[in-house]
Amino acid sequence: MGGGSKDPAPKVHPEERELAKIAKEQWAEYKSKYVPLENEWMNEVAGYDSAQSHERARNLSIAEFQHANPNRFAEMRDSVGAGNAYKGSGGFGEALKTMDNATQVSNKASLGVTDRYARGIESVIGIGQGVATEGLMGLGDVAESAVQGRIDNLKNRYEWEQGKRAMGGAFVGGASRYGLSKFTDKGDK
Amino acid sequence: MGGSSPKTYESFDRVAAQERADLARSEWDDYKTRFAPWEDRLIAFNKDPGVEERAVESARAGAHNQFAVGVGEYRRNKMRLGESGLLDEGEKRGLALAKVKASVQAVNDARAYTEDRREKITSGGLGTAAARRNA
Fold first, then answer.
1. B39/A10 Cβ within 8 A
2. Are B69 and B101 part of one and the same domain?
3. Best mutation site among B58, B65, B118 for testing chain A: the one with the most A CBs within 10 Å?
4. pLDDT digits (tens, 9 = 90+) for A123-169
5. Residue contact B34–A42, C-beta within 8 A
6. Pair (B58, B110) in one structural domain
7. Residue B83 main-chain phi, psi, to 5 deg
8. Chain-chain contact of B117 with A38 (C-beta, under 8 angstroms)
9. Total tally of structural domains belonging to chain B
10. In this complex, do A16 and B117 lie within 8 Å of one another by their Cβ atoms?
11. Is B11 inside any structural domain?
């Protein structure tokens, strides 16, 4: 009897208890402060792929396209403005090119909206994984996703597309001028 | 009676350990409730054939709209000059051809882009994918 139990006695460690208490307080603060923001972000992401979002992006991209290419639209008007010569001036061809460009730009914008939605979902999952592993980390992800997603998917992609089209446009323009000069030469003869 | 062995202690504080375990449970429950459904959503999104169908449909509709707007503007410009607002046969043919070409390109882009996105999601995220595309 005298030996008693061999089980170790419970240990009281004030520092461990204090750390556990702090972790609990941090979790409570996180829930009250950040969870509502995360939920708000989730609601926003859920609406990213809506028909209205696609429509807005399409309209925005067309507005930007017109703003970035005022000469193209002016050219279209000017060439039409050549009166009876509008057919030979290539005004209709210019108009068709503009319609094609506008189609491709707005299409890319719409695809970008779906991208943003997928990235939004990924960012939500990323925040959740941060919750599981790093506690309070994650709000930075929210801001980065909201801003960067918009920039990447609309502006950069739009500019990238514009750059590609500008090169194509320059080529087409050059070729047209070359063809026109040939035509004129023949006419002169 | 005497001579009992020196008292030994556990290597951890039970109360603190229990609090930490409760915390871990609470965090995990939160993840399952709020975040796990988003994982399911991403998986479903990536498998959904409707994503491509909608992109293709949107590309077609976009081509239709842009050409309708463009032709309207062109016709208005002609009429402003006292010309007929109607398109002649050559213009109609040119318009039909250009519209089909633009629509086909938009649809092809939509298909390729959607497939590309699906692969990027599967292989680990769109962030780096977007950076690569825009490089």
1. no
2. yes
3. B58
4. 888 888 774 433 322 333 333 333 333 334 444 444 444 444 333 33
5. yes
6. yes
7. -85, 170
8. no
9. 2
10. no
11. no
List the one residue out of A12, A102, A90, A133 whose CA is nearest residue B30: A133
Mean pLDDT across chain B, nearest whole number? 86
* Shortest Cα–Cα distance, A4 to chain B (Å): 8
In the predicted structure, residue A85 carries a pLDDT above the cut 70: no
Distance between CA A176 and CA A170 in Å, rounded? 10
Same domain, B55 and B88: yes
- Show which of residues 6-45 on chain B sit within 8 Å of chain A, judged by CB atoms: 7-17, 19-20, 22-23, 26-28, 30-31, 34-36, 38-39, 41-42, 45
In terms of domains, do B33 and B61 share one? no
Assess contact for A61 and A108: CB atoms under 8 A: yes
Residue B99 sits in the same domain as residue B34: no
More confident site: A170 or A47: A47
Cβ contact, residue pair A3, B102, below 8 Å: no
Q: Residue B81: give the domain boundaries.
A: 49-123
Q: Does B83 touch chain A (CB under 8 A)?
A: yes
CB A114 within 8 A of CB B117: yes
pTM of the entire structure?
Answer: 0.69
Tokens 């972790």 identify what position? A23
What is the rounded distance in angstroms from the CA atom of residue A54 to the CA atom of residue A74?
28
Q: Minimal Cα–Cα distance from A39 to chain B, Å? A: 8
